[in-house]
Write a sequence for this structure.
């Protein structure tokens, strides 16, 4: 459907073209996602791998609403500094999860279009609803783990020795903190690589269609 194609173009601009999140684009994207989730329930829309991925992209914008609710509750409810820090980190992690999940899912849509264009027969066995569903679940699992680790930073500055936590647990937390530091170092280059990946595949498909 043309509406789904327009939605994908909008999402590509929102997540893979614009250098940073834009509040206006975010709100418009969330409204578009609500519309797309409604469209995908229509019987006339065939359930294909692309539709599954688009549905996951639309569902990712639910996290935008969660982030807004967290921001509102943070402003209304007065709490201690530790609780406020937790709420602030939670709001940021909702935004991170939305951006990272959407970017990865959009890259999967691009890859599928590339495979359809260049390897339609050879990749038919992996271009199905089951693989698209598994891929979406894996992306959500990775993003959830990432945000869980980021949320652990809230307790990094706290003195937790009085809780009687065993040394093994403290060592595990230290490992998590190092993993968080590594993830933060890799986030930007991975984002750049995703943009290059998408641009390259679109470039190949565009000139294939233009000169074929």
């Amino acid at each position: 459907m043309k509406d789904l194609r327009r939605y994908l173009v909008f999402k590509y601009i929102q997540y893979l073209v614009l250098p940073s999140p834009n509040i206006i684009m975010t709100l418009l994207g969330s409204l578009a996602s609500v519309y797309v989730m409604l469209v995908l329930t229509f019987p006339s829309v065939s359930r294909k791998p692309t539709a599954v991925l688009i549905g996951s992209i639309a569902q990712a914008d639910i996290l935008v609403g969660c982030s807004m609710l967290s921001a509102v509750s943070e402003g209304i409810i007065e709490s201690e500094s530790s609780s406020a820090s937790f709420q602030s980190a939670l709001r940021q992690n909702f935004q991170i999860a939305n951006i990272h999940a959407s970017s990865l899912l959009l890259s999967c849509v691009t890859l599928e279009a590339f495979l359809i264009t260049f390897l339609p027969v050879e990749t038919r066995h992996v271009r199905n609803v089951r693989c698209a569903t598994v891929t979406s679940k894996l992306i959500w699992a990775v993003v959830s783990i990432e945000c869980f680790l980021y949320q652990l930073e809230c307790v990094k500055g706290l003195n937790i020795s009085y809780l009687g936590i065993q040394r093994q647990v403290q060592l595990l937390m230290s490992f998590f903190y190092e993993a968080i530091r590594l993830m933060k170092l890799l986030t930007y280059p991975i984002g750049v690589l995703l943009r290059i990946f998408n641009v390259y595949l679109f470039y190949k498909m565009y000139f294939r269609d233009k000169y074929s």
The mean pLDDT is 87. The longest helix spans residues 167-211. DSSP finds seven helices and no strands in the chain.
